[in-house]
Amino acid sequence: MAGEPQADCLFCKIVAGTVPATVVRETETTVAFRDINPQAPTHVLVIPRLHYPDAASLAAADPNVTADVLREAGEIAAQEKVDDHGYRIVFNTGAGAGQTVFHAHAHVLGGRGLQWPPG
After folding, report:
1. Cα 5 to Cα 99: distance, rounded to the nearest angstrom
2. Running along the chain, 119 residues long, what does each successive block of 10 average in pLDDT?
């Protein structure tokens, strides 16, 4: 059920502390940690503590936590010192868009040139 921890969800396990991650920032509603397969010098994931399968379902169910995720993405960019040169926030929604863990999450990417269009 949306909002409830899922036993088979990797990110729910990271939130619970049963799977290790390199956590760089935590708030009451979010956890941010380094991606294990970074695509840029800065590649941090920001996730809500509550389980929602993708960004659209998170936004529909809890706009305040959606805003928290985006605010934390900006804080991560500043903490990682990529905010002055530019960074990208990416939400992949659905397998066809590259989502591999079905727990809403924002990728914060920076520290190198990010071309357009992506992918």
Report:
1. 19
2. 85 97 98 97 98 97 97 98 96 95 98 88
